[in-house]
Design a protein that fits this description.
Blueprint: H1 2-29, H2 46-118, E1 123-126, E2 130-138, E3 143-151, E4 157-161, H3 172-179, E5 183-186, E6 190-193, E7 196-199, E8 204-205, E9 208-209, E10 221-226, E11 231-234, H4 239-243, E12 247-253, E13 256-259, E14 262-263, H5 268-272, E15 279-284, E16 290-295, H6 308-317, E17 323-326, E18 334-336, E19 339-340, E20 354-358
Antiparallel strand pairs: 1-2, 2-3, 3-16, 4-20, 5-18, 5-20, 6-7, 8-9, 10-11, 10-12, 13-14, 13-17, 15-16, 15-17, 18-19
Helix pairs in contact: 1-2
InterPro entries: NAGPA
Protein name: Phosphodiester glycosidase domain-containing protein
Domain Phosphodiester glycosidase: 179-359
């Protein structure tokens, strides 16, 4: 709004000054010459003609003196207006700078608060596209790793299919390396069939449905990013509901963990199968930053790892707003700067059909 005001002021000043500038330029570059025909004078003596010519020359000289005086006054006025214009411009720029700093101050304070809850980052990637921070969190029954990510551009994050095709699969590390990403985590669930691995339920890639829209069933949900780089997710009974969110990409799994900062009720079947396991969850903050937690577990039999309730507790403790459980177990994968950060429970990374990647 302030930028528009400055542009309007610029145009107004130019329009106001243009007549004066034109007159000044004309006076500076024009050679005035006045020729009077002989017929303009009645017969007179030589002295009379001489006196008349002198009077006319004097009149022209006086006119030129007056024009110069007007030009000087006009020039002084223009210079004064230009000084006022430049001062106004400088004042407006200072106002914009101050207002921007004041507007960003609450965001900076908020970011400091949520970062403080995570501790000191062990690694930071900062670029024009994103700021990503890696944290290590030790809990009673598991080691976990946290990514806090601020997306600064529309191409800072994307979801990709395994080997870029439906039914294809590859490890998150392979996807990261193939796309030149700086970080990556596993995304939605999957179903095997015919020797291929397909994304589970509704999956969106580049704004298009990979296998069409599937209404929410059981405890499935959809989670992804919209055109404004905002995390969106939940249960959708018809295609129009999801279409209205302008989703760029996203995947499906179970269950929803957090809504508006409140823990949801976890269905019994997901509390017990297994009780503890490697986990991957994705969430958002009030300012739009993303929070991703990957928890280790030595196996998928439930003897080690995190419960979904414990993941809810971590999300709430870290100040998240909405949280979603992504595929876990042997699928849990966290890649940072070309390295596998977590300890895959299969002993190696699992090949998966969908991955969330981040770019600097």
């Amino acid at each position: 709004m302030m930028t528009s005001s400055i542009r309007t002021l610029n145009r107004t000043m130019l329009l106001a000054c243009s007549p004066f500038i034109a007159v000044l330029l004309w006076l500076m570059v024009t050679n005035i010459s006045i020729t009077l025909p002989d017929s303009s004078f009645p017969e007179a003596s030589y002295d009379q003609k001489e006196n008349a010519s002198s009077e006319q020359a004097s009149s022209v000289a006086n006119g030129l003196d007056a024009a110069r005086s007007i030009a000087a006054e006009t020039s002084a006025s223009i210079k004064k207006q230009l000084r006022l214009y430049n001062q106004t411009n400088a004042d407006m720029k200072q106002i914009v700078t101050t207002a921007t700093a004041q507007a960003n101050r609450p965001l900076a304070v908020y970011d400091k608060i949520i970062t403080g809850k995570l501790g000191n980052p062990s690694g930071t990637i900062n670029s024009d596209k994103l700021r990503a921070q890696l944290f290590y969190i030790q809990a009673d029954h598991f080691q976990s790793y946290v990514l806090k990510i601020k997306l600064k551009s529309s191409d800072a994050m994307k979801m990709v299919l395994g080997k870029d095709k439906a039914g294809g699969s590859e490890t998150t590390l392979a996807a990261v390396q193939r796309y030149g990403a700086v970080a990556g985590v596993n995304a939605g669930g999957f179903a095997d069939g015919g020797g291929k691995r397909y994304p589970l339920s509704t999956t969106v890639l580049n704004g298009q449905y990979v296998n069409g829209f599937e209404p929410t069933r059981s405890d499935l949900f959809f989670v992804g990013l919209n055109e404004n780089n905002q995390l969106v997710g939940g249960k959708y009974t018809n295609k129009q509901q999801l279409d209205s969110l302008d989703v760029k990409f996203g995947a499906s799994f179970v269950p929803v963990l957090l809504k508006n900062g409140n823990a949801t009720t976890i269905p019994t079947k997901w509390q017990l199968s297994p009780v503890r396991a490697p986990r991957t969850v994705i969430a958002n903050y009030k300012d739009g930053q993303l929070l991703i937690i990957v928890a280790d577990g030595r196996n998928e039999g439930g003897s080690s790892g995190a419960t979904l309730t414990e993941m809810q507790i971590l999300l709430k403790r870290f100040g998240a707003v909405d949280g979603y459980n992504l595929d876990g177990g042997g699928s849990s994968s966290l890649i940072w700067n070309g390295r596998v950060i977590n300890k895959p429970s299969d002993g190696q990374l699992r090949k998966l059909p969908t991955h969330f990647l981040f770019f600097k």
